[in-house]
Amino acid sequence: MGTLDSLGDVRGKRVLVRSDLNVPLSGGRIGDDGRIRASVPTIRELADSGARVVVMAHLGRPKGAPDPAYSLAPVAERLGELLGAPVAFATDTVGESAHAVVDGLAPGQVAVLENVRFDPGETSKDEAEREAFARRLAELGDAFVSDGFGVVHRKQASVYDVARLLPHAMGELVAGELDVLRRLTEKPERPYAVVLGGSKVSDKLGVIASLLDKADRLLIGGGMVFTFLRAQGHDVGRSLLEEDQVDTCRRYLEQAEASGVRIVLPTDIRVADAVEEGSAVAVVPADAIPADKIGVDIGPDSEKLFAEALADARTVFWNGPMGVFEIEAFSGGTRAVAEALNRVEGLSVVGGGDSAAAVRSLDFPDSAFSHISTGGGASLEYLEGKHLPGLEVLG
Questions:
Q1: pTM of the full predicted structure?
Q2: Scanning 20, 88, 182, 297, which has the fewest C-beta atoms within 10 Å of its C-beta?
């Protein structure tokens, strides 16, 4: 896969950049601008090289039609603040506004097109429809740069098809993500610990199966832990439970024991009557969750247990919070894991998505970790060994 240098002299050329600007947005206000900040280095390098930079991205899941709630206008404004220069904004994707804005760019200037998912061709399963939209996007550029790692697992027009139509390269963000993921999968420095959380074990089945023969330790928290506790024969009260995955979790526990991988489960759990602010919290043993309670976080003894399991690790990958971190009373486990990663004397990787949002909401600086991924589901699929069409198309 070629890097930006492989594009040669880009001065005056229109360079389409597929970024990942899918940030939390409410009432026009950005909740976490981490993905925007991560997109800046590639955009700035191209602009400094004299390119006319045209940024493509999506936001949320609009249904193939314009929806003001998912407009990229606030994102374009924030990008301009981070770049320290005005960023033009096209109010459509491939229409009159897009052509006028791109035509008006001078070398070194940047524009953002409106949400590519406002066009049904972006995510269409019909290859002809998808390619037709890609061709209209490609008319706006002379070269293409893939710099949104969070979407490279999607076979979508602005990710996959445009790359087939224009000279292409990967941006700095994608190159950086690949470097970290290779360090996690190809001879990682040991001990190698993986921390998995989040709500559903079914979301992590593939990565658990893949990492059972790569990691030395697997720490499990979040909502998914209750399916593992049920697999051990424990009651979990009203906690989140995927009954159809209990047998699978039991097999993972048996496989880990047979292969010498240590699976670390919480020994105590914070429980509440409801998952809401102000709900009273109690700490109970993990094998004695009351029938009328809901597990909302790992407990204080588990925080110490997890920290000890990470203390001598040289490689750590963390994906998924330990509890409902958005509520302060349920955030202790997630904070404890973040603090433990902060002390790791090796590679510490926060696996994007809710994990990245959690560490930032708990006021940890990005510099506290070796790498905060923007990859989310794409990173997990890479770790599972799946094919990522947005990477494969780059050659």
A1: 0.89
A2: 182
